């Protein structure tokens, strides 16, 4: 969908591939700041801003959450996904758009609501790159480990995610890195199949070694750094364990858990849905007094043999946020909480952490897999 008065030449920019087209100037304003940057017309304005070090607000970067809402003040734009779920947060009469789904075909100005501070750029600026599928391995009936070769190497902090795109499916999808943070030529993702989903149906039914992907990253603010010197609590559901694994690997390497406690609650539905217990058991073994990992089954009993096979892990039944609330009652103060997984789990966990655990919002970091 085009907004503004598009010259005929602008219409053709819709079908050009990434890398082509000459850059346009974008001006972003909020109540407290103004920044200008250049953007390629075939790339979303949000990504071009972040790449340029302009910290526009975002969360999912894929059209769902509405956080990247802005008002078009001037210029010709193209809406890549008019039906995006995040469009429900927009007032079309005010020319509001989602910047993660908007491309600028000519010089544009946008007004971002509130007091967005565009200067707060992350330590590592995201960039675009290419990737090749190296390995795709089933972890359960509907969860797979995807390993890709990145070109150039992806630099990321523990807890971050990248956007992946295949030429076979429209739009980027967000996936958290599951391996050790740093500069990685090979990156691991843990991906759950969504019935009828564009990217995951392609991945599970058609993708093969050697397939090419495009990526943009790293993104996300639910990051862990041992430099913060904090005790942590993690709540993950299903493939949400990806970013938590990266956090645990980073903490273990930095010997963070020799001094600071980490308590992890990994929720799955049934015993058929559980994976990477050997890896989690190894991590728990490396910090036996300070790293506690509980596997929580919401729709199944605990298999009595699990305790013998994975002696460093704990097992329980229920929902992970409930077990966290019970086990850490009176011990939340001072922790940073990390939550990753399905939106419902993230929402109830945030509510628990604010109302019961009394954690301040600034110490709750999450990735909602919407
Ligand atoms: C921050 C974050 C981290 C995530 N990390 C993981 C992870 O580590 N593991 C995991 O399994 N899942 C993760 N997800 C969920 C993942 O991004 C996908 O939503 C999920 O895999 C389903 O994708 P799909 O293409 O199969 O389903 P679809 O229903 O086709 O698409 C799901 C999402 O993709 C985006 N999308 C769909 N169509 C378009 C379009 N035309 N243009 C642009 N965008 C579109 C939207 O955000 C939509 O909600 C994460 C999500 C977020 C926001
Ligand atoms: S960041 Fe654009 S909708 Fe979430």
Any descriptors?
370 residues; alpha/beta; Ubiquitin-like (UB roll); Elongation Factor Tu (Ef-tu), domain 3; Rossmann fold; 3 domains; six-stranded antiparallel sheet; six-stranded parallel sheet; disordered N terminus; binds flavin-adenine dinucleotide; binds FE2/S2 (inorganic) cluster
Structure description:
With 370 residues, the chain is α/β, with parallel strands linked by helices. It has three domains: 2-111, Roll (Ubiquitin-like (UB roll)); 127-219, Elongation Factor Tu (Ef-tu), domain 3, CATH 2.40.30.10; 226-368, Nucleotide-binding domain of ferredoxin-NADP reductase (FNR) module (Rossmann fold, 3-Layer(aba) Sandwich). The protein is 19% helix and 33% strand. The chain is globular. The two termini are 23 Å apart. Mean pLDDT is 93; it is low at 1-19. The structure holds flavin-adenine dinucleotide and FE2/S2 (inorganic) cluster. The site of FE2/S2 (inorganic) cluster has 13 residues, from loops.
